[in-house]
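Morning - manganese (II) ion inputs below, output right after.
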Amino acid sequence: MGFSEEVQGAAETIRRAETVSVISHIDADGISSEAIVRTAVARAGIPVSSHFVRQLEPLTMKAVPEDDSLKIFVDLGAGQQNLLEERGLTPDEVLILDHHVAQPCGTEYQQVNGVPHGHTRLSAAGVAYFVAKELDEENVDLAKIAIVGNVGDMMARETLGLVGPAAEIVADGVAHGSVRVVRRDLNCYGTSTRPVHVCLSYNDDPRIPGITNDTRGAQRFLERLDLDLRAPGGRWRVWEELHDTEKRTITSALVQQLLANGEGVERVFAESYLFPDEVERTPLRNASEFATVLNACGRWAKPRIGSSVCCGDRGTALREAEYMLNNHRSIIRELLQFIMETGVTELSHLQYLHVGDRYPDTIVGIGAGMALGKLNWRKPILIMCTLPEDPGLTKVSMRTNEWSVRRGIDLQAALNAASGEFGGGGGGHPIAAGAFIPREAEEVFVSRVNDLLRDQLA
Ligand SMILES: [Mn+2]
């Protein structure tokens, strides 16, 4: 069965359902997937309820309602089919919309997943979108939310833009008028909300000497270009509102700076996705900043607020989401400061730190990623924290950058292999990954990961 047959089959299953329960993940992709499925199912006139879980494991299975609804698992489920089976769920009450590698079990559950069809850069929100569109063409307005999920799950990162079926979603959004594509935009986070110099200094892909991690340096760089980056009234302008000629002046100077340092320039540009119907200079204005809003909601246990924002609530839900985002950022700043003050221990191929139970495990990875730029950025960073709800377990988060990934570093492979040896489990991407390990294995584990990273560079 091809991908489009899977999509058609899923739409038929949903049409037959009397009630639907959506079970989804709390990250940007999970929240946007849930919003897409919930909207499409409700528009089809079927009662629907949603349930979010941090991950699908034996303890969180209780979030799955014990009723005769159709259970649609989104952004999870493919790798945990054994749990569905253990729970006694039958094939006719389950539909899985996922993009993680499937672990089949004795029961054959209906599934839509791009991965077996070679669509490895289509997140769950993308899968959910195709099913929604199959249910009703009217659902093309959800393309925007699908793009947020895909970008949030880093589907555009390596390829500098969405590709394959995800690019079809972009085309739908453009045709609908709710998405604007900028083909060769600045490959930088924060282009709708941050002052340009801040935007540039926070970016490490590509890493630009004198600008990356140097806000003052970035400001001097822009001053030399003789651009007026203040708006009338004195506030800093953001990248999105610069004129094309100003943008070109900046990008060509960045290119020159990279060439002068013998660095590649291909990563200066990336495709970006703007939402013209959102207010200018707000985080909902582009896909990657919108995804951060959803992640902030999810990581602070308010995925429903993010979902309401996806579904168009620009009142209470948006205000709460903005509060979550600000709170998220200030705690990450605090964590970053803690990391810098405490310092890391350097091994030959990584640097590590244990933050104990001071910060929730849902944000330590983000803090690690931000600290990396200020530490020895050539060495991946590993951060451990304890889980208040399970003192026997340690959560490990690792971050590196494109520079290391291009040299062969794959954190997901390293963490997966190492945690497997200690009976734990891991997942993620080459550039960012996490794992759970038994607490008593911490020390040996770190040195094992160090060895694996050394082997990857060999
Ligand atoms: Mn996902």
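Note: The longest strand covers residues 390-399.

O.
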